[in-house]
Structure formats: C-alpha cells, structure tokens
Amino acid sequence: MALHLNLLHEEISEQRQRQRDPLKIGVMVLAACGVLLFLYYAWNAYETLAIKSRLSAIEQDWAKIEPKVTAAQKRSAELTNIINTTRVLDNYIDNRFFWAPLLEKISRCVAPNAQLTTIEGNMLDDNKGVTVNIEGVAAAREPRSAAEDLRQMLLEQLGQTYSEVKVEFKSLEDVDTVAKIGDANTPMARYTIAVTFKTASAPKPEPTPARSKRKNESS
Amino acid sequence: MNLPKLNKDQAKKVFLSTMGFVFLLYVYFTFFLGPLNKSRHDTQAKIADRQHKLDTSKSEMQKAVNLERQAKDATARFTALKALSPEGAPIAWFPPRMKSFFADQRIDKAVARLESNAGFKEPELSDWVKYNWVIELPQADYTTLGRAIAELENTEPLLCINKLSIHLVPDQAQFQQIAIAATTVIQKR
Questions:
Q1: Given a cut of 90, is residue B15 above it in pLDDT?
Q2: What domain range includes position A173?
Q3: Residues of B in contact with A218 (CB under 8 A)
Q4: Residues of chain B contacting residue A119, judged by C-beta atoms under 8 Å apart
Q5: pLDDT of A209 higher than 70
Q6: For residues A181 and B87, which has the higher predicted lDDT (pLDDT)?
Q7: Angle CA(A35)–CA(A39)–CA(A45) in degrees, nearest 5?
Q8: What is the structure's pLDDT at B177?
C-alpha cells in the first residue's frame, strides 16, 4: 500500500469548510425555493389572467343581452300583473248577484189579487246571501190564504234558482179596508214577507280571462 | 443520520437562513399568492354568476314570449275593462252616464250620488278603487225597471248592485220609487 502524504491538508479543509458554509447553502436553498415559488406564482397569474379574459368576454355577451333580458323581465312582470288583475276582476264580475232575474221571478209570483207595495233587497257581505223584504196587500174571500199562496209561490220559484231559500211571514194581518174586485167587495190582508237565500250554490271553477260575461239575460 | 457539528457562527447562520426562509414564505403567501388567489376566486364567482344569468336569460326571454301569447286574451280583456272608466274623476262622469243610461231606458230624472270610496284589500287590485253610489229613480214602472236593471248589469260588468229598494208611489199605483245602492270598480287615474 502506497503511502500518501497530504501536504495541503489545511487548505483542503478550509476549502471544504467554505463549501459547507451553512449561510451559503441556506442562500442557495432560499434562491431555489424563490425560483420555484416565482414559477408557481407566474403559473397562477397566467391562469388568473386567462380567467379574467374569459370574464371579460362573458361580460361583453351579457352587456349585449342584458337590455333585452331586462325588458323581457319587465314585460313578464307587467303581463303577470295584468293576468292576475284580470282574474280577480273576472271573479268579482262572476260573483256579482244579478237583481233583474230576481225581480222577474217575484213578478211571476204575484197573482192578480195581490199587490206589492215595497221590495227591499239587501246583499249580505261577501256575496254570501241576499235578504229581501216584501210588503204588500192581498185581496180575496180568504185574504190570508191569498198571501200564503204568494209565499208558497215565492218559495217554489226562488228555490229553482237559489239555494237555502227561506220565505217567511214577518207579519200578516187583516185590514179594515176592502178592495172592490169586479162588483164585489173583497176583504184584504196586509203582509210582510222576509225572503233569504244564498246566491253561490257550489264552488266555481277558475274562470278564464276570455270568458263571456254576458250571463244576465232576464227581462 | 449524522449531522455535522456546527460551531457557534454556523449555527447563527443556519438560524438566519431559516428565519429568512420563513420570512420569504410569509411575504410570498401574504402579498403575492394570497391576493392572486382571491382575485382568481372572485373572478370565477363573477363568471359563474354571469353564466347563470346568461343561461337563465334565454329562458326568461322565452318565458316572456310565451306569456305574451298566453296573455293575449287577458290583455284585451284588461284593456276593455279599463276602457269602461273614462279619464277624470268618477263623480264627474258617472252620474251623467247613469242619467243618460236610464233616460235611454225610458226612466227619467235618475240621480246618482257618491256615497263613499275605498281601496281593495287584494294586492292585485291596488290600482283600483271601489266607489259606492246611490242611484235614485223617482218614478218607473216595474217592467221598465226590471229591463233597465238587466241592461245595467249586463253593460256595466264592474258595477254591482248591493241594495235595491222599490216603493210604491202613493198616488200612482203603476209607478214605483227606486233607490239602488251600487258599487263600481274604477281604475285609479
């Protein structure tokens, strides 16, 4: 085995010492990390720029389409409002109580020997029903019976159209005056009849806006 | 693993290097990567929002077109109902209209008085007002009155009769005195 003499031992160890300098190694590591981080940042920045460019393109598209969309939304809201208002108004119109057919029915019930002096009709709240007070006089050999005939007739006639019809005498009294029918003097009775009935018999289906409203065809 | 033994100076340098590295990371994440990522996320959120708007806008426009088609009848009907009320205060035009209406029905001297007015509870009718009127007809025969009321109810769809009072005229048995309490629905002007 050859014998080696290292005469530069001190220089070499100083050089090694310098190479192993922790600060130098640290700076190198830091620099390497810095480069890596910079590259990562650059990649992220590039991606962000690409995303921003995409956003810009989308915003341009949106700017083109937005006025039309806003107008369409406004029109939709307006139309929806019109449809809803028309529907509620149609409900109001459909749920009205028509008095002319009632007057016609009452007129059909009055026999020649009866006379009505007052008709007072009232619609109850929310169209739930109608009350009618009828005052009048009847003249016949049996005037109370003539008044009862009128009551029966009203009950029958109104029952054909309305529900829960009640026709009751509030008062029925003979009067001293007599009516002259033909040549005969006929006794008279004065009566007050209270009529109540419901107008809405069954729930109605939702009306369509185009439905015809001309449903009162009496008289 | 055998780490070389560090002298005091070397340990100080290692410590300084480590501190420098930590500081570098802090600066990098706080002032560079953090704001960049935030900006990217914000932009992505904006893109998603705009994209959603763009996607829904097509359906919105289609919906408006369909609604326009469906609402054709309702719009025509709404216009017709609106046209029933002329411009101006109802008290200015409703009484003359009633007078003229009943005159056409051969009932003279009709007088309409405004009793009250009120808004609707329904939000759909926030632009409409209820007007309560009393229409007095001093003299009419029963048949003519019946026909006139039928015509009134048919030609004035927004008019609803709430009360009807018919009294015999004392001296003229063929005539009646009539009072009609009616409500009309009129658009606010």
A1: no
A2: 99-198
A3: 146, 150
A4: 164-166
A5: no
A6: B87
A7: 140
A8: 92
Enumerate residues 34 to 73 of chain A having a beta carbon within 8 A of any beta carbon in chain B. 34, 37, 40-41, 44-45, 47-48, 51-52, 54-55, 58-59, 61-62, 65-66, 68-69, 72-73
Per-residue model confidence as pLDDT tens digits over B109-136: 899 999 999 988 888 888 899 999 999 9
Q: How far is B92 from chain A (nearest CA, A)?
A: 23
- Whether A75 is covered by a domain: the verdict is yes
- Last residue within a domain, chosen from A78, A94, A110: A94
The pair of structure tokens assigned to A116 is 């009505």
- CA B59 – CA A183 distance, rounded (Å): 85
Query: Among residues B63, B59, B139, B69, which one has the least CA distance to residue B102?
Result: B139
Residue with token string 């009775």: A189
Are A17 and A77 contained in the same domain?
yes
Q: Using the predicted structure, report yes or no on whether residue B7 has a pLDDT greater than 90.
A: no
Q: What is the CA radius of gyration of chain A?
A: 51
Q: pLDDT digits over A17-41, tens only?
A: 677 676 677 778 878 888 998 899 9
> Residue A217 pLDDT more than 50?
no
Residue whose pair of structure tokens reads 């029905």 in the numeric block: B105
Check whether residue A26 and residue A74 sit in a common domain. Answer: yes
Please judge whether A30 and B6 are an interchain contact, meaning their C-beta atoms are less than 8 angstroms apart: no
Residue A218 is assigned to a structural domain of this protein = no
Q: Which positions in chain B touch A59 (Cβ < 8 Å)? A: 50
Q: Which pLDDT band, with edges at 50, 70 and 90, does B36 fall under?
A: very high
Number of domains in chain A: 2
Whether residues A70 and A108 fall in one domain: no
Q: What is the mean pLDDT of chain A?
A: 84
Closest CA to A118 of B169, B134, B109: B169
Of the residues A94, A121, A138, which one is the last residue of a structural domain? A94
